[in-house]
Amino acid sequence: MDVDGGSTSSDSTRVRSIPIRSGQCKAFLSQFKQQSLPACKPVLTPAWVIAIHLLLGFVFIPIGLVTLHASRGVLEIVDRYDADCVPEEFKGNKVSYIKDTSVPKNCTRILKVHKYMKAPIYIYYQLDNYYQNHRRYVKSRSDQQLLHGLKYNDTSSCKPEESNNGLPIVPCGLIAWSLFNDTYTFIHGTAELRVNRKNIAWKSDRDHKFGKHVYPFNFQNGTLIGGGKLDPNIPLGDQEDLIVWMRTSALPSFRKIYGRIEEDLEADDVIVVHLMNNYNTYSFGGKKKLVISTSSWLGGRNDFLGVAYIFVGSSAVILSLVFLLLHVKNPR
Amino acid sequence: MTRDVSLTGRSSTTRTVRLGRVQPQAPSHRTIYCNDREANFPIRFKGNSISTTKYNFFTFLPKGLFEQFRRVANCYFLFISILSMTPISPVNPVTNVVPLSLVLLVSLIKEAFEDWKRFQNDMVINNGPVEVLQDQKWETVPWKKLQVGDIVRVKQDGFFPADLLFLASTNPDGVCYIETANLDGETNLKIRKALERTWDYSTPEKAAEFKGEVQCEQPNNSLYTFTGNLIIQKQTLPLSPNQLLLRGCSLRNTEYIVGAVIFTGHETKVMMNSMNVPSKRSTLERKLDKLILTLFGSLFLMCLIGAIASGIFINRKYHYLGLDEGAPTEFNPSNRFGVAALTLFTLITLYSTIIPISLYVSIEMIKFIQCTQFINKDLHMYHAETNTAALARTSNLNEELGQVEYIFSDKTGTLTRNLMEFFKCSIGGEVYGFGITEIEQGGAERNGIQVQVHKSVSAVHEKGFNFDDSRLMRGAWRNEPDPDTCKEFFRCLAICHTVLPEGDESPEKITYQAASPDEAALVTAAKNFGFFFYRRTPTMIYVRESHVEKMGKILDVAYEILNVLEFNSTRKRQSVVCRYPDGRLVLYCKGADTVIYERLADGNDDLKKITRGHLEQFGSAGLRTLCLAYRDLSPEMYESWNEKFIQAKSSLRDRENKLDEVAELIEKELILIGSTAIEDKLQEGVPGCIQTLSRAGIKIWVLTGDKMETAINIAYACNLINNEMKQFIISSETDAIREVENRGDQVEIACFIKEEVKKELKRCLEEAQHCLSTVSGPKLALVIDGKCLMYALDPSLRVMLLNLSLNCSSVVCCRVSPLQKAQVTSLVKKGARKITLSIGDGANDVSMIQAAHIGVGISGLEGMQAVMASDFAIAQFRYLADLLLVHGRWSYLRICKVITYFFYKNLTFTLTQFWFTFHTGFSGQRFYDDWFQSLYNVIFTALPVIMVGLFDKDVSASLSKKYPELYKEGIRNVFFKWRVVGTWACFSVYQSLIFYHFVTTSSAGGKNSSGRIFGLWDVSTMAFTCVVITVNLRLLMICNSITRWHYISVGGSILAWFIFIFVYSIFRENVFFVIYVLMSTFYFYITILLVPIVALLGDFIYQGVQRWFFPYDYQIVQEIHRHEPDDNSRAGLLEIENQLTPHEERSYAIAQLPREISKHTGFAFDSPGYESFFAAQLGIYAPQKPWDVARRASVRSRPKTSKKN
How large is the ipTM? Predict the structure, then answer.
């Protein structure tokens, strides 16, 4: 530090008067600078702790009950078929069964309806241990191409399924390539149940993510076939199976919607399902399940939310009682 | 020159060897050709311009960036940014590069701005005008143009621009007077004398002829030494410090001087003495680095887990992943090690959010606003009289203010105003003076009594005199029970002193030149009592006495001064033998009570006892006392004594001792008159402030250049030491040491003192440990002087000193040099690892201010040196309470909250990502969209935490000061311990688990009445919404006070997220329309209610239980004052209604004062350099004393009067 030679420098630091001014904004500034802005000072006293817990209980338990009720109202039939659909001789080597194109893949399952199921009844297929959220898998798609087709040439993100014979595959990428291709037909009594496979994808996907004029003309033409094929004459925007499949799941165990049965099913009805067991989950030990489920305002059957609400609500009430006891017994 | 300086000089040469800061003397000498720029040119001396900036134009970018990348976090982000440009990154590089650049930009702008201010300040100094001799004329040039060898002229009151060789002055005898306040804080004038050979070179014509050659030592930092030779016309003349004018001093009482520049710019002694401006970082920030390192650790661990698992997971059996031979290394199952290694980096970029990127910028912004808006604008730290507000000069150390444990304070100018005032006296067993000292006031206030000081009409207040008792004024003492004693008292005050009057011989206009302000105060007191001392000649003292014979009569009386038995620190008394005009021979004596009482005549025990009681009373009130006594001498007895005296006086050997012995012969059988009590005027509010600070758990050390007695006195006055404390005094002023010193062998002295100090330290330490081991042992205080300290700081004794001093609640170091102040500070800073604060006002405090964690400068009347080196500048010592207890504590709390909250929110966020990794085959798939991830820190959670950093207040400012104990939480660092961080981390883990698992589990299955299913981005958007809401609400839970700005910012942040996603999801393919899809389901609303509440419930219960069963101190205070409205005025809390009349009140207050028997009586007539100047006149030889300076100064400015005498 050096000697302060003159008074000029000291003036600048020394003379700093603090005027107090009036006016709304200035009052605020003054309060701000003096750190005296009006503030509420919550003090979490025991009374508050108890009251808030009680309140929480009284709000949560009803919500939980309603939610649980809705979830419980949903009927669900789940049938795992991947293991049973393998013929006896292939039980030891399921992978060779699924890879052997000469072996017929059809299989018949019989489902029993326990309770009256009101239409619409949704058909899902469920895959377990299937990593649709693997990094290599998730990024192996081209949203631009799905929307614009060959007008969009950069399919580098689609590796390793980006092109075939120099032309970009439409739709490119691993996700599309591994399209699920098991099919189900449902026989109720003697007649086949009509399965509506339209309008199963989110509308925004159909309208804005998949092109109306993009046709899968060279899909699954490569040496290695990953999964389902697409009708080259239908634009991607109408290939709802693909659209559903390409909304990749968050977890390795997921359901995807297959279609909708628009008839009521009575209790004790028996439904025969003829399915084509095409999709290879055997090599990595994934499970395949067929799910038939009704729906509520909340969606499918999922007790989790309701149970969580009730659990949290009742814990809060119990805690508040415990605190209350402590407070009464040992007030501060 | 003076003995004083040569002593210090000796000690500083020893320092060269011992303490290392002094550069070793280069063997070569520098040779300077005065007044000959060409001859000097080849040597290339440094210029006189100085620079205290950290950067210059070219080094700014590299050095500034380097400074920035010293922060671990910034380094890390650079690394991540580079990494995210590689293909293995799961995120877009822009999302990492942009925030980092933003952070760097903001920080660099701030650095540049601060350095620019420093640069401007340097420019002002460098461009100050100085007159240089050019072509036989004085040319005004800026300081920076000055070169070694130049001849310069400095006018009265000007500052010396460089270290100058003093050639000539306008004063006769070639002397000049300088004030060294900027160097050592001493305001009394020092004398410098040019060599006789050069006296004539004062006119430009003559000076142009001066062609000398100076050979002198290389630049060094020892202020009091200088050796060299001036070779002029083949004559070699030795140079001493007496011819050296140091940069930074100013010229006084001299029209102008002419000097030759010897050292310039950074080579001047004052600049060499200043340490480099260290870039201070707060301790909290350093601890923050540790926290961030820990985060790195956990990051690495998380990545390692993920990486190893990914190596295990990857398998060709997942045919849908297309993992054939051509797969890239990161996914190639045939190279599992490669997969693991690359995934490690992938995960590092993915989890980079664990390190909060905006943390540093946010903290810097918060601190900046805290400084510029809160500290600088605080009306409670605004000193109206000098129109000075507090000034925070750096914004790095705000929170450090909340953790200070040791304060090192300068005395003069900081604690005291260096203003002595005659306050009370005791005459013939009667106390006069109604005033109440600040200490008494403070004591009364602590006992809950509000003392209003009402000035009565009779109170007289002028410089040096503040006395309120009409019984002694205007001759009223004649009616007192013992008027004769009163008369002796006043005469003693008027005669027995070594003061020189200056100016007009009228009571209003006269000023007294005295070596110590105490003396001046006593003489001023005599003047006010009607005994006006107005003229002195070597043999006579003239006093204008009023009301002596009868009321209203004024009489000029001349007393013949026969002998002066001067004051020194062994004698601790001073006597004058005088002859009245009527021939009465009297010896007047004043001195410390201990020495006077030993020499009193027998009898009159009542008076002695009463007076002793008064002395103790004065002492405990913090007053400096002196006893006055006289003795009538018979002519015969005097004559025989005077012979011995003259003999002793003219002896050549051992004269001082002989004089002392002779003095003993006559200074006996004294008759006690009474005692005086002088108030060493403290700065306003100092004792109260110190009391508050020590209640806050802060230990205060006083480091002063003053003598031991003075220092102890002030320590008493400031409540630092009281009689209940056990004092350890380690002094070099012992007989044993003095004896060895007299033998003069430097090596022997050093060894001996070291041994003595070691012995003392050991003894004290043992006693201290003994005291501490007892349950209610007394508090301890240590007093040590500079010379002992020098040896005690030796590495071998350092630990002992530290142990002892840390056990003491207050420490006083006296006679310390500026460098020692810094050493003591760093001893505690490094040795005890506690936060230290230094406060001072002068240039002598600069090194101490820079050495401490926090330097505080008093921006008062003295130079701006201390302020320029400081981190904070305040106008008064008492504002320290506001600065530390209010601003410091709040800043600390706020910054702690900000940091822990940042830590929490980023950890929570990153952990959800981490849990997701387990469900993606450890592939490093991102859970959130990259813009979610990068904007999370920058937008969605940035603003509310700044609000907390600015507005959070646990208790109001007045309560902070009312309960200083709250400050201890900061000293113990309660709010930023690993335990606190650990608690937050636990809740982070809990919350992240809730977020991830609640959202994913509940999202399985169809999610609306048409049975449609959510995909990855729907779920992650849901989770992200929950995170943003929860994290923002969590912030509200940590607030102690919630202003509407909190609501706005928290609400705004959540809203910002929704607005963002509403817009963003229209454009971005992967999250296309997710928010609309989500919001079309009931699921969204039910989850958004459940998840944040469940996540916050844990924290809520924890907070409730913690406050209920294990409350912090501040929480208790909060609840005590829960129903009081927040007083924004801060004042008036301690005011108690009282209906007493002022007089009743005062007597009541006095009655309430503690009346314990005081051992300390406050003798302090002992300022540096108080020794009589008469020795020089009467003796054959006497070394020149500092006192001469003042005398000469007064003689010069009053030549006519002295001639007349």
Answer: 0.92
